[in-house]
Amino acid sequence: MKTLTITIPDTEDTKAVLGEVAQQLYHNGLLTVEQAADLTEYAENYFGTLPEHTQKLLQEITKPMQATLTVEEMIQRQNYKGINRQELDRIAHEMDIQESYEELVAMLTK
To answer: Origin, by domain of life (predicted)?
Structure first.
C-alpha cells in the first residue's frame, strides 16, 4: 500500500471527506471493505451502501418489486398482443431468404 497525504479546507469535515474517498476506492475495487472500514473508522456495512444522493435517485426512478408475478399478469400489464403470424410470414416471404438455417446461424458467429 502507498501513503497519500491530502490537504483539505478547514471548512470541510475530515471524516466525511475520508469516507467519500474510501467509498469511491472501495466501489472501484481498489480497497477491500475491511481496508475501507479501517481507513474511515466506519462499520464495514457502510461501504455496501450507496451514497445518499444515489439512493434518493434510485427511489425516484424505481418501483418496488412484486413478490410474485405470473406470465398472465405480465401480459396484461404490458398489453402484449403476441405475434401476428400471417404478417411475420409475409415479411419473411418478401425477404426471400435463400440460406439455410445453419448458414444463417453461422453468419452470426463470424
So the answer is: Bacteria
In a domain, 93, yes or no: yes
Q: What is the pTM of this model?
A: 0.38
Of 22, 30, 15, 17, the C-alpha closest to 47 is 22
Residue 31 carries which DSSP code?
A: S
3-state helix, strand, coil in the chain (%, to 5): 55, 0, 45
**DSSP letters of 35-83?**
HHHHHHT--GGGGGSPPHHHHHHHHHH--PPPS---HHHHHHHTT----
Q: Using CA of residue 51, residue 57, residue 61, residue 66, what is the dihedral sign?
A: positive
Inter-residue contact 22 to 47 (CB < 8 Å): yes
Nearest to 21 by CA among 3, 46, 39: 39
Query: How do residues 22-33 score in pLDDT, each as one tens digit?
Result: 877 877 778 887
Q: Count of domains in the chain?
A: 2
The residue range of the domain holding 51 is 14-61
